[in-house]
Amino acid sequence: MLSGPLLLVVLVLSVLFIVLATSALRLHPFLALILAALGVGLGTGLPADRIVSALKDGFGSTLGSIGIVILAGTIIGVILEKTGASLSMANYILRLVGKDRSPLAVAVTGYLVGIPIFCDSGFVVLSPLNNSLARLSRTSMAVMAFALAAPLYIIHCLIPPHPGPTAAAGVLGADLGGTILLGILLGIPAAAVALFWATKFASRYDVSPASDTTFEEMVSQRGRLPHPALSFAPIAAPILLIGLGSFARLDTRPFGEGSFTTFVTFCGDPNVALLLGILVAWTLARRQGGRQVRDWIGEAMASAGPILAITGAGGAFGYMLRVTPVGEYLGTLLLNWELGLLLPFLLGAALKTAQGSSTVAVITGSSLLAPVLLQLGLGTPWGQVFTVLALGAGSMVISHANDSYFWVVAKFSNLDETTAFRTYSVGTALVGCTTLLVILVVARLFGV
């Protein structure tokens, strides 16, 4: 079997292959990650039977830990979109903050709606609202675009059930509940900085809305919207259950050792909590009819399929690194750098900037780091959680022309490429670095 510096050559070639295959060759990330895993196994001289078993074990164990979370989260997101619940939440937040503070309204909406809905879908769904509020408040679309896009982006990069952080938590063995709760809390300062950037810097660019549809017309076209309380419930219920479950599992056992603790811990498992979230979301869809709801769930399953494939492939790549000497050799090298959480951030940022996908960046980064967490001093439960978050922060830097979300934001907001680079791309770098600083400060409090 291969040893020494040649192991590093195999690792570098595998990462370069993933970057070039997904960006220049437009190969699907699933194939790129699987082929890279095979390349690592063959390149290091691993026996053929162990290569095959490592491929299957890595793929299966990763999906076994987070597959339900991804599927359930996708189903909730589709139901919120199709029933008009996302618009109902936006309407409620708008009434609270007022139309004269439209950027704040869409930022809060994006942060909440983004928890179950992928950033691309969330931005498309909320774009008509964004355009109408820009016209109503006479605010530049450059401001409104980033005020909405950044919170959606932050959530997408940091918090399960989004595919990147979910897969990374599975690969690194991080607690999903802790990752969700800390991610939501630590993303808030970054969202505040994003709002500041939008209102103080993006406002220098005067961009007209792309649509003539008013907010009132949007509401009338949708018909009767669900009650705001019902609209928020499918998001709030799983988060509350996960929070209670994490609290119940503390070493101090605040709820004791009885049946109530067992029940709370069971319901607070992210898999169970999100499945219960589907039941809550079902109340929004009752009047749509069984066939319609089945079609929506089928659509969610179809959307989740490619994500599950990429996630499993990332797990296979990471497992292959662990069963070969590559991981041990990499850990020996990285240990001398003493970068701590800065390492996953830089790794995520480099992969993101190079190939454009935050999901691929986080999954690949977690696969590279999994074999060496202990050597880096990040092998504790909280160290694993903060590593996932640091990778997510890095995957925000920097969204530009090779990122599909860049074009979604630009085209749906009437931004030309130059304006999008100056307002959105620069803003994502600021948001990612802000998130890292918050993570470093809070991680110190947790002893990481």
Describe it.
The longest helix has 35 residues. 77% of the residues lie in helices and 0% in strands. α8 packs across α14 and α11 packs across α12. With 448 residues, it is an all-alpha fold. The chain has one domain. The protein is globular, with a radius of gyration of 22 Å.
Topology, please?
Layout: H1 5-23, H2 29-43, H3 48-82, H4 85-97, H5 102-113, H6 119-137, H7 141-158, H8 163-172, H9 176-200, H10 215-222, H11 228-248, H12 259-268, H13 270-285, H14 290-323, H15 326-335, H16 342-355, H17 358-369, H18 373-376, H19 381-394, H20 404-412, H21 417-445
Helix pairs in contact: 1-2, 2-3, 2-14, 3-8, 3-13, 3-14, 4-5, 4-11, 5-6, 5-7, 5-9, 6-7, 6-20, 7-9, 7-21, 8-14, 8-17, 8-19, 9-11, 9-19, 9-21, 11-12, 11-13, 14-17, 16-17, 16-19, 17-19, 19-21
Average pLDDT confidence is 87
Structural class: mainly alpha
Q: Number of folding domains?
A: 1
What are the segments in which pLDDT stays under 50 over at least 5 consecutive residues?
Answer: none
What general outline do the C-alpha atoms trace? globular
What's the total number of strands?
Answer: 0
Helicity level: over 70%
